[in-house]
Amino acid sequence: MSGGPLRGFRDYVPPDAGARSELRRRLRGAARRSGFQELEVPSVESFELYQTKSGAGIAAETWTFRDKGDRPVALVPEQTPSLARIFADRAKAEPLPVKWFTVAKSWRYEEPQSGRTREFVQFNLDILGVPGVAAEADLLATAALALDDAGAAGLYRFRINDRAIAEGIGRRFGATEPERLFRAIDRFRKVGPEEFEKELAGAGVDPARTGELRTLLASAGEGIEPARLDGYLGRLSAEGVDPSADPGLARVRELTGLLVAMGLGGRIVFDPTIVRGLAYYTSTVFEAFATVGEARALFGGGRYDHLIELFGGPPTPAAGLALGDQTLEILLRAAGRWPEGEPALDTYVVTVRPELLGEALGIVEALRRNGTTAEADLLGRSMSRQLREAARRRCRRALILGLKEASPGALVERDLATGTQREIAREPARGPA
What we know:
Blueprint: H1 16-33, E1 37-38, E2 44-46, H2 47-54, E3 64-66, E4 72-75, H3 80-90, E5 98-107, E6 119-128, H4 134-152, E7 156-162, H5 163-172, H6 178-186, H7 193-202, H8 210-218, H9 226-239, H10 246-261, E8 268-270, E9 284-290, E10 297-303, H11 307-310, E11 318-324, H12 325-334, E12 347-351, H13 357-369, E13 374-376, H14 383-392, E14 397-401, E15 410-415, E16 421-425
Helix pairs in contact: 1-4, 4-10, 5-6, 5-10, 6-7, 9-10
């Protein structure tokens, strides 16, 4: 029997497990400071839930099986369908807007590669009940706060677009299959010119004009910054899009204005190649991407105004995003910003003689119940080895029990950063109340 995990899965041992826990704590903290409330969903759902949202194609990447009642079920590949199911059931009782976040494991049967495993943790932010782009602005501001708190400040930017703009571009060039057009445009930077033109032809674009369309998309470079946005959108409207794109152009302008007012103008660009591949997005779409290293996508999201209705709920405007842990870990490690692991211990109680262990554990218990992180040696090691262990655990101080030079009933407190020592009185150990 193999001693390792299944292909596409990972073991996380200390200190990495502690670092990941710390990362989740930071993400949760940012969400809560932004007024989001945590939602917890099951790990297994009816497979029909994903067919409702994403169609039959979802089966290719979902871990499906039949339960003991012979019902088709699936390990949760994403959180949004569960959120939609829950909200549809509670819509009448939930005051709007609803701001929910989840931090949960998900599973997808995909080909493992760097930044993509078959089991991963996803951080989702969703706002329901807000029809305007103020929801998107709040989502992106919260995502910026979460990424900054996670350690990624200065390492990312947001790309924003609107599907109406992509559809308007397609109509200008004769596209007859909007969804195929969206998939083609979304792959603009990921495939060569020949494959891109082949995909455009499949969407109904006139082959004689695919070069013109490619030039139009390439004219945005790596993205249009806010200061250049009005000029670029004006040219796009005049030269490259059907008038049906006008609502999308207006939404992009409004969203950009809100983000600039929030102090995030330096982190956003307009990118006409961002359309997101999922069919349920209805207008605005966005991604975060790393600005260093391999420029990986860190998260994606957008507006999905009709999803709640698919689950039997009332018409509800909604927008959300999903941040995966794998690409964020790669970015933070490469930048030397990966958390150290579990937080450092505050106190290590050191015994001069093994027979003092009981007294040491009493002190440790009292400290813990007073809110201080504390530990003592359980292996009967020498005093010097205990002090080395305290340093390894990044303790702030050591309390040394049993030194001959100490006054009766006193402990010696050693500052492990400076090495300075002082005597302190020992309070009686307090057990559970």
